Amino acid sequence: MELPDPLVVRIASALTPGAALDLACGTGRHAIWLAERGWRVTAVDRSSEAIASLRERAPSADARVANLEAGEYIIEKSAWDLVLISRYLQRDLFEPAKLGVKPRGVLIAIVLLEDPAKHPQRFRARPGELQSFFRGWEILHAYEGIASNHYVAELAARRGL
């Protein structure tokens, strides 16, 4: 099984377990790790195979098949202590994800960053773009550079009161 991202481990370990939402969770490496540490996890992905695998490995997680791009999952407002979006970029998902975070809750986003040697790519963020979605939030962590042999943008931000 793939290990959770070090940023997720560092930030989530410093929080009191509560309700976590893992969007575009894939096979659930983060959802499983969070559930094993006492978080009440809802995990969403469009792949029924990935969700079936997650359900097998973490039966306590509320794993749901939904196409986020088609709006098949509605993020409940102010419901989540932690929202996670990892290795997935859907620009219009950030606003509802932010609204889903409880006051003083945290959102962690990790997206692929445009490779400076290539033309702009739809599913990769431009430098500075990820952080621009979080103006007015307390930035706990922001990084752009190479991680796991990919150009990435990482951000962890806390919602105000």
Cα end-to-end separation: 37 Å
Q: Percent of residues in beta strands?
A: 25-35%
> From the alpha-carbon coordinates, what is the Rg to the nearest angstrom?
15 Å
One letter per element, helices H and strands E, the order comes to HEHEHEEHEHEE
Choose one word for the global shape: globular
User: What is the level 1 CATH name?
Assistant: Alpha Beta
**In CATH terms, what is the architecture?**
3-Layer(aba) Sandwich
Task: Give the CATH topology.
Answer: Rossmann fold
Q: How many strand elements?
A: 7
**By helix and strand content, what is the structural category?**
alpha/beta
Indicate the percent of residues in helices.
Answer: 10-25%
The strands making up the biggest β-sheet line up spatially as: 3-2-1-4-5-7-6
Low-confidence stretches: none
In DSSP terms, counting alpha (H) and pi (I) runs of 4 or more, how many helices?
A: 5
**Tally of individual domains:** 1
Main beta-sheet annotation: 7 strands, mixed
Mean pLDDT: 94
The CATH superfamily name is: Vaccinia Virus protein VP39
Would you mind describing this structure in some detail?
By secondary structure, the protein is α/β, with parallel strands linked by helices. It has one domain (6-158): Rossmann fold. It is built from five helices and seven strands. The chain has helices spanning 6-13, 29-36, 48-57, 94-100, 129-132, and strands at 19-23, 40-45, 62-65, 80-86, 101-112, 138-147, 150-158. Strands 3-2-1-4-5-7-6 form a seven-stranded mixed sheet. It is globular, with a radius of gyration of 15 Å.
